[in-house]
Write a structure and sequence with these properties.
The chain is an alpha/beta fold. It has three domains: about 160 residues, 3-Layer(aba) Sandwich (Rossmann fold); about 90 residues, Rossmann fold; about 110 residues, Rossmann fold (3-Layer(aba) Sandwich). About 35% of the residues lie in helices and about 20% in strands. The chain has 15 helices and 15 strands. A seven-stranded mixed beta sheet has the order 2-3-1-4-5-7-6, with helices on both faces. The two termini are about 30 Å apart.
């Protein structure tokens, strides 16, 4: 991911659903004007969900997700359909594609019922309408021909009107005023990616600049010297959670302090839930299992934050013999009942709907849910300080 690329988590996720050979892949190619998806007359060409980040006018940055057919058969087919249904967790807009001649069948009705219960914006697309009128139908669906391009522009306009609002939440901009100074603490160690900043750091810099503030980036080893050299106190210090203790020690008590991970929890809409879960961390017992959930997949270093540092710190802090399991990417467990606690990453690579789905599933199954930054700040006894900025400025 480059500095100029819209993060996947900030894109509108459009899921394409339908039976085999309804023309889902052809529709993706028509929407994008490119041959992105494999098109074949052979049923079941799409065997796994396939995502592609794109810019589509007038929608802007989106992620299109092509899914297996709803009517796939056999034991393997059932697994493919299950994967297609899992895509709904991250879908902002669902396009239910049907053959224009066959219309809506039992599979589509079942899917539409599920979509309605989940509150997902959706549209029925009647494909293969190669002749006759294209565009809106009386039942609210829209007629298109992915083959000829008929109705595709009208479909884009309909999708644009379904695009969810971002809710006005800011990552850090609402905590800053024009002319403010914010210091970002970025450790450069074996676990840091070579030659670049990680996504939350990039996003905080961008949002601070949009607020008219100045951002100063420094390593934890140079933080104290940097603060002394500034000539004025910064409005806020934002640190990588891994060096929360060092940043807290170097930052004067009258300067606000938080972490990238805590900012991300607020941005994704689950900070209050994460804060309420710290009491569960206090009650862990020997043999309890903790799930470490990561929203992306990456090469793990010897001192990986999720799989090494947090388990070690939590064992030391609790004094308990705890068991840990790790999920990454899209592989978030459906059954969370074996776990006493879910500790999630910041979720920067996940859309808000996916993060809130995970939080909601944890709540439904009675499992407390918090993230790296909140847990680390709590273990180091600085959680009240790390959240003070939200009481003084911002929601």
């Amino acid at each position: 991911m480059t500095m100029n690329t819209t993060p996947s988590g900030n894109r509108v996720h459009i899921g394409i659903f339908g039976r085999r050979n309804a023309g889902k892949s052809s529709l993706i190619n028509a929407l994008t004007g490119q041959d992105l998806a494999v098109v074949s007359d052979v049923m079941g060409t799409t065997t796994d969900p396939v995502s592609k980040a794109m810019e589509i006018n007038p929608l802007g940055p989106v992620v299109l997700i092509d899914t297996p057919g709803l009517d796939d058969e056999g034991e393997l087919g059932e697994k493919r359909v299950k994967k297609a249904m899992q895509v709904l967790r991250k879908t902002d807009i669902a396009l239910v594609v049907v053959d224009g001649e066959k219309g809506v069948g039992p599979q589509e009705r079942e899917l539409l019922d599920r979509i309605g219960k989940m509150g997902i914006a959706h549209l029925v697309v009647r494909n293969k309408c190669d002749a006759g009128d294209a565009g809106p139908a009386q039942d609210g669906s829209i007629k298109v021909s992915a083959k000829t391009g008929r109705g595709i522009d009208a479909l884009k306009e309909r999708i644009a009107h379904l695009t969810p609002e971002q809710g006005g939440r800011r990552l850090i901009g609402d905590l800053l005023a024009p002319g403010d100074l914010v210091v970002l603490v970025v450790p450069i160690d074996a676990a840091a990616p070579k030659g670049r900043l990680i996504l939350p750091q990039q996003q905080v810099i961008r949002d601070a600049l949009e607020a008219g503030a100045a951002a100063v980036v420094t390593r934890d080893s140079e933080l104290e010297g940097t603060l002394k050299s500034l000539g004025r106190k910064p409005r806020l210090v934002v640190t990588d959670s891994q060096v929360f203790d060092k940043a807290a020690a170097a930052t004067p008590q009258d300067v606000l302090l938080t972490s990238f991970s805590i900012l991300m929890a607020r941005y994704k809409g689950y900070l209050d839930t994460a804060l309420s879960a710290v009491t569960a961390a206090e009650d862990l017992r020997d043999g309890d299992a903790v799930l470490i959930a990561e929203g992306c997949t990456h090469h793990r270093q010897c001192e990986d934050i999720g799989t090494v540092k947090i388990p070690r710190w939590l064992r030391e802090h609790s004094g308990r013999d705890l068991r840990f399991a790790v999920s990454s990417g899209a592989d978030f467990p459906e059954d969370l009942t074996p776990y006493k606690l879910v500790v999630h990453c910041g979720g920067c690579m996940l859309g808000e709907r996916e993060v809130l789905y995970r939080m909601g599933e944890a709540a439904r199954q009675g499992v407390p849910f918090l993230n790296y930054g909140v847990l680390i700040a709590w273990m180091q006894g600085i959680l009240p300080r790390a959240t003070q900025v939200f009481a003084r400025g911002g929601n």
